Amino acid sequence: MPSSPCRLLIVDDHLMLTQSLALLFAGQPDLVVVDQLASGTALLEWLGKAVGAAVPADVLLLDLHLPGPDGLTLLPTLQQYPQLRVLVFSTAASPELIERVAAAGAHGFVAKSADAEHLLESIRRVHAGQRVFPRAPAGPPPRAAKLPSHCCACTAFRAGSGK
């Protein structure tokens, strides 16, 4: 593990979440929040203030659903900052999306449904240079249950909309 504290940049458009994360991280002696931003545009402006490619953060905790450019759109741009390790933190967690995030250059992915210990461990591992992605479950995907045809949400899901 790196000996210096991990400097975190949080980018999420939900103020309650970013404030809660900052409180969680404040209780960790090896983590320091350097800033909290609420949009893709604010992130690009923040990065634009960095001198050259020297960014005053080690790990970027990035939501995918942001105003302005979204997280997935930002990932290729973030590769211009090789010392900034990107950990995507999102409610959307389909295997296809996680593959896209990895292919676009993220160093890790944590679902927002994860517990605090998993998030903290993932941040530390990404800071240490590891890639952190959920493993695909072994074996075939679970079979869909038979659902009544009168249920609107279930019918839409069965039809492939996923909602």
Automatic annotation (TrEMBL):
Keywords: DNA-binding, Phosphoprotein. Pfam families: Response_reg. GO terms for molecular function: DNA binding. Residues 7-127 form the Response regulatory domain. GO terms for biological process: phosphorelay signal transduction system. The keyword DNA-binding applies. This is Response regulator transcription factor.
